[in-house]
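User: I'm preparing a small set of examples for a lab meeting where we compare how different chains pack in three dimensions. I only have the primary sequence for this one, and I'd like the structure in token form so I can line it up with the others. Please keep the answer compact; I'll paste it straight into my notes.
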Amino acid sequence: MGSNTRDIRRRIKSVKNTAQITKAMQMIAAAKMRKAQQRAMDARPYAQMLNRVLVSLHEHTEDELHPLLQARPVHHTLVYLVGTDKGLCGGLNTNLFREVQQFDPATTSFIATGRKAVDFLARTKRQLLADFPMRDTPDYSEVKPVAQFIIDKFLAGEADKVVVLHTDFVNTLTQVPSAHELLPITAFHMGGKKAEEEESSAEEAMSSFKFEPSPKEVLSALLPFYVGNEIYAMILNARASEQSARMVAMKNATDNAKSLIKDLTLEYNKIRQAAITTEILEISTAQIAMG
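Assistant: Understood. Below is the structure token output for the 291-residue chain.
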């Protein structure tokens, strides 16, 4: 009985310590998730105004398409894979990396953010061109090198299509892998609104604006900002998804630990009760034998 109860007490103590750690990680992830969501919301007004400007500019420059707007036969695809640096976020990375299988390794190259993404691409022997580390809540300045790298590859003809593969935040319990075609630009939809939905508001917003030196030159200057903002919005979305998935995973781990503590405590009490009952029977038997 002694060794059994000691082992169970040791297990209960160990599980309690684990529960304290997972509970702390749950609270940290919840705070980071709220921060990432707030950053995404704060960036939305600028994105919506940029969308309106670009819709209007595009209407004034349709005679000659900008290179970033020109579709061409797809011989090679560049995929930007946005993973996480850390694990303990449920099946988030597994579900995201499963989507990589839809791209032919022979005609696809990759760039990545997140150590998990880099490790996956190395493990599956995919062509990794560059790795762009980022913080949990990145600034736009961290995204600019990614956007420039992607634009340079597309304009040089080294990639005919650019796709961003990230996790889309739906709500706290739901995060969905998403493959978003970034280049060529086929529709302006920053802020979650398609170009068709923005046309009427764009015409009203642009009616009092004048573009200098010309709509074409302004469009050429703004399109790289648009690409950068698209990437920035998706990274913030992916970060919110990561922290949400980690919060849920740590909550489940904490709940499981509490359930295990309850089961171990019940088992411990049963062993103690059985031992006490055995001792009482032995004493009673001894008394009867002596009497």
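A couple of notes for your slides: The domain at 2-26+251-290 is CATH 1.10.287.80 (Helix Hairpins). Residues 215-290 form the longest helix (76 residues).

User: Perfect, thanks.
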